[in-house]
Amino acid sequence: MPVLSEPLSLRTAGVPAAAPCARPAELLTAGYLLATGLLVASLGDPPMAWGSTLLFHTIGIALMLGVLPRLRATGWPAVVRDWLPVLAPPLFYAEVAHLNQLLGMGYHDGTIQVLEGALFVTASGAQPGVALRHLLPWPAVGEYLHFSYFAYYLLLPLLAGVLYFHGRIREYRYVVATVLGTFYLCFLCFIVFPVAGPWYRLPHPSASAIGAFFPHLVHMVLARAASKGAAFPSSHVAVAVVIWLLAWRFARRVFWLLALIVPTLAVGTVYGGFHYAIDVAAGAAVGILCYLIGPRINRMLGGDTVDLHSEPTWS
User: Fold this and answer.
1) Is residue 136 classed as helix, strand or coil in its secondary structure?
2) Among 194, 21, 213, 217, which residue's Cα sits nearest to residue 104?
3) pLDDT per position as a tens digit, 94-115
């Protein structure tokens, strides 16, 4: 393995070599694992069936609070520490479908469908996803909307990578912490108020009816990796919106690139039958909220100050 001649985590001016203490992204991750671990310990029945989950959470907390802060601040250990928390959300998302049944309340689709009908009434009385597919019946549209939906998985690596490999480590760490906080807030909503979503509750179109490649790819991913009960608010939209806003502040060229993806991603979640329209509205609200409170949370957790009101960066 090559040894880096310069510590990547310290390339930006004004970031001193810090004492071994957890960063905001690590604290948020450990906090989420602790909160959900306590839920499992309290309500998991039978307890032995949840042993592997508790072990996973315990190891994760130890990694975030005990191991990562003690890694060498130069070379590849610094890179591992900076990027390892980015891998956490997919792992935590996978267990949401099990955690959201601990409270024993089932799924709240009935409540969401009532609100959907009250707030998003179409002229024909059709569900918004059905209405969108009738309004935009062209395969090219379906293809692009599903491409945008799939591109969600590349948004954080794109913005974070641009910042990191331009040596803007302060902004990189802030972006990662803010996006992880957005993920964890959505996951907690899924656990406390599970909504299965139209993918499970309503008929959805076959992939062949709405496109040639990306609809098939998205359906394959959902068939293998979707977590039932993770519909409200849409984490797809919440995370995409907060990343888009952060790009406006820190990497304006990335923002304009994402302008081709984030709006159509939001439309695609409804068009494809993956979310109710109200899931999308709630997700956008969560994304905006997390962007606005991000500086305060970052400061509370001991992170570097990042001024969201300074002159924006165009790189």
Assistant:
1) coil
2) 194
3) 999 999 999 888 999 999 999 9
Give CA–CA dist 233/190, Å, rounded. Answer: 8
Give the per-residue pLDDT at 45. Answer: 82
Q: Which secondary structure element, helix H or strand E, spans residue 10, and what is its range? A: none
Extract the residue ranges of the chain whose pLDDT is less than 50: 1-13, 16, 18
Measured between alpha carbons, how far is 305 from 294 in angstroms, rounded to an integer? Answer: 11
Give the C-alpha separation, 70 to 56, whole Å: 20
Spell out the residues 6+ positions from residue 196 whose beta carbon is closer than 8 angstroms to its own.
107, 109, 228, 229, 231
Cα(210)–Cα(212) distance, integer angstroms = 7
Strand partners, 195: 230
H or E element: which one contains 73? none
239 in Cβ contact with 179 (< 8 Å): yes
- One-letter identity of residue 105: M
Burial of 1 (0-12, 13-18, 19+ CB in 10 A): exposed
pLDDT at 308: 64
| Confidence (pTM) | 0.90
pLDDT at 126: 78
Instruction: Give the distance from CA 91 to its chain's centroid.
Output: 12
- Check residue 281 and give its pLDDT: 97
- Give the pLDDT confidence score for residue 122 in this predicted structure: 67
| CA 246 to chain CA centroid, nearest Å | 14
DSSP E strands in 70-162: the ranges are: none
